[in-house]
Amino acid sequence: MGKFKSDLGDLVNPSCFQEPLDASGCSKEVLISQLKMMLTIRMVEEVVAELVIGGEAKCPCHLGIGQEAIPVGVSKLLKNTDHVFGGHRSHAHYLSVGGDVYGLFSEILGKVTGCSKGMGGSMHLFAGDKGFKGALPIVGGTTPIAMGAGLAAKMDGNGDVAVSYFGDGAVEGGVVQESLNLASVLDLPVLFVCENNLYSSHLDIQLRQSSDKVSRFAEAHRMENRVVDGNDVIAVSKATEELLQLARAGKGPGFLEAITYRWRGHVGPDENIDVGVRRKNEDLLAWKKRDPIQRLVEGMENEKLIGNGELEKIKKDIRASIIKAKDEALEAPYPEKSALLDLVYSDKK
Amino acid sequence: MTIEKKVSYGEAICSGFQYLLGKYPNVFTIGQGLWAPWYVGNSMKDLDKDFGIERVIDSPVSEAACTGAAIGASLCGYRPVIIHPRMDFMLLTIDQVVNQAAKWSHMLGGQAHPAVTIRSIINRGGEQGAQHSQALHAWFAHVPGLRVVLPATVKDARDLLISSVLSDDPVLYIDDRWLYELEDVLPPVEEIDLVKIKPQVMKEGKDITLVGTSFSAHMCLQAASNLNENGIDCEVIDLRVINPLDVSAVVESVKKTGRLCAIDGGWRTCGLAGEVIVRVMEEIDLGTLKSKAKRITLPDAPAPSSKPLEEAYYPSINEVCASIIEQVG
After folding, report:
1. Considering only CB atoms, which chain A residues are within 8 Å of B57?
2. Omega before residue B244 within 30° of 0, cis
3. Interface touch B75/A114, C-beta < 8 Å
4. Which residues from B are below 8 Å from A346, CB to CB?
5. Helices (H), chain A
6. Nearest 5°: phi and psi at B56?
7. Do residues A111 and A61 lie in contact, with contact meaning Cβ atoms separated by under 8 Å?
8. CA nearest B296: which of B234, B200, B217?
9. Which of residues 153-212 of A touch B (CB under 8 A)?
10. How many whole angstroms from its chain centre is CA B153?
11. CA nearest A82 in B: which residue?
12. Which of residues 46-65 of B touch A (CB under 8 A)?
């Protein structure tokens, strides 16, 4: 394992951080809304998994089940005028800024009613009116683009920010390092969000880097950074708030490293126990006990922020609207064949 | 009668930037050497002083991230020009150009367009060798979604830059250092929609159609001038935009002359000259051809450094003329 040394301590020990979240002093309204969004994301992705298993969805679908707290925690602090960019595993990034569920199902099914008009599938998502400028699957590819959106935001001078979501694998590519340097040198209002789930497609971070602490690269660029339990939506929001306050005030970029674990494989519905090098069933079982949703619910119960039976009703309502959206998406039409050539350049739009 | 002042191709590019930066507050430029413009000849002289270092940004040695930054800003209402003073270094940006900018509109359903201009300079000769001499325009012309522009004249050097920056699509604008000393009178700026820019006939003739772009268009003109003495009347066409490629003017010309020679500063295999020839051959009645079509390109080898090899590498005007004489017969 080369020169690897773990610098994250308990944050990567799945038997730690399993207790309920500390919700004391939190707004009930905010937590209920965050809980609803996390449930929506999880249930949508579970339905996507069913669509893949059932053969209705054919495009590669990268599920982020288990990682829901990060985008939900971040998006609480975002405005529609901010610029958000994602990667290959971005259903949650899209949904958490208000991207439409029906638009997502339609897109995954290749329908013209999709958020990208059926031209992209799961890996190419867009919700311009929500500030979601694009999620695209070349690892690290949208990070410099987000940094450029940060340059635009700086020139606009309105206090808007750009957000770049990427994983622990992306920092192994040169362009992400270039982007961190440029954002730092030009003092750009960019929030870099690294969802460190400890695996690239299949390979453990221990076999890929000299440390599991990705934010060491932020340190190298003298960038404000926070490392948090990515399965704690309250901690994610708090760290995001601190970093965005600086960025919006013109004090330069921030880097949020959120430690998490994906419950499914790199792509598709399978849990991929036998695929990941060192990815073990006992790890997965332990990480499932660090469930960001269950811990939030228990934390809210401790503070009497959610009543008896309320959770079941919320789940039932969300489930019903998701199933309706999926059924409608299955019935929706495909794009016209003319889209193939008409969308290459802007003049035929 | 007043004699109008002539300006050079390099100065014309600079006047294009002055026009754009002066008129459009959402235009900015970023790239290496912009505060020390010997990097790019006289083509961006004093822009930083005239328009400020916030809009004329000299950058770290990060070709890919700077290109991505320009793409990102273009998605947020700006019209940036990313400068690559040498095309070879632009290869570090391929993901941003080919995977991201070129496909952005298509893969997101035509809902967003990166209105970015990538200016890249071909800088050949001078014993600079394999990694400082490439002309890779044909690579980028292969990619749907990019517009690829190569100005051959002083007027086009300025006006096609303006058209490129005002286009809503990602545009690769490629100029050639071998043209920087070219001089002409510049008429007032005309803002022309890039979509409307078509190949133009630089010289009419009846015996053979010569097709080129950028520096090779001037080789065609020079050959036409030299061959006048031999009684060969060449028609010369400058393609100007090679992606999307429109060869209808060339087809019409070959119907008239019955002969076609395509000259290109890139390599032979899968190159621009071959593409032009095949497109024309697909459109015309081959029986009307008076001779087989020909292409004059670089040999399929990296650029050498040593002087005699370099002389052998780049087609000379005498070689071009000899080839045309043989073709006309």
Report:
1. 186
2. yes
3. no
4. 105, 110, 113, 167-169
5. 28-53, 69-75, 91-96, 101-108, 143-156, 174-185, 216-220, 233-248, 281-289, 292-302, 310-331, 339-342
6. -125, 90
7. no
8. B217
9. 153, 155-156, 162, 174-175, 178-179, 181-182, 185-186
10. 10
11. B76
12. 54, 57, 59-60, 62, 64-65
Rounded Cα distance, B37 and B48, in Å? 9
Residues in chain B: 329
Q: How far apart are CA A102 and CA A108, in angstroms?
A: 10
A145-194 confidence digits (pLDDT tens): 999 999 999 999 999 999 999 999 999 999 999 999 999 999 999 999 99
A120 and B CB contact within 8 Å:
yes
Say if the Cβ atoms of B74 and A148 lie within 8 Å. Answer: yes
**CA gap A223, A236 in Å, rounded:** 18
Q: Which two tokens stand for residue A202?
A: 């299949």
Give me the phi and psi of A228, to 5 degrees please.
-135, 160
User: How distant is the Cα of B164 from the closest Cα of chain A, in angstroms?
Assistant: 13
Q: Cβ separation of A147 and B76 shorter than 8 Å?
A: no
- Residue B53's CB is within 10 A of a number of other CB atoms, namely 12
Distance of CA A29 to CAs A25, A169, A305, A315, Å?
Answer: 12, 35, 9, 17
Pick the residue of B51, B107, B192, B197 with the most A CBs within 10 A to test the interface with A by mutation.
Answer: B107
- Model-level pTM greater than 0.90? yes
Cβ neighbors of A122 (< 8 A, separation 6 or more) are: A48, A57, A59, A60, A61, A62, A91, A107, A108
Radius of gyration from C-alpha coordinates of chain A: 20
Gap between the Cα atoms of B180 and B66, Å rounded: 25
DSSP code of residue A17: S
Distance, in Å, from the CA atom of A343 to the CA atom of A196, rounded to the nearest integer, reads 35
Q: Residues with Cβ < 8 Å from B318, sequence gap 6 or more?
A: none
Q: Do B108 and A126 touch (CB under 8 A)?
A: yes
Which residue among B54, B65, B75 sits closest to A149, beta carbon to beta carbon?
A: B75
Q: Which tokens hold the place of A304?
A: 């009497």
Strands B183-185 and B6-8: antiparallel
What's the gap in Å between the CA of B321 and the closest CA on chain A? 39
Q: What is the ipTM of this complex?
A: 0.96
pLDDT tens profile A187-212: 999 999 999 999 998 899 999 999 99
Is A314 part of the contact surface with chain B (CB cutoff 8 Å)? no
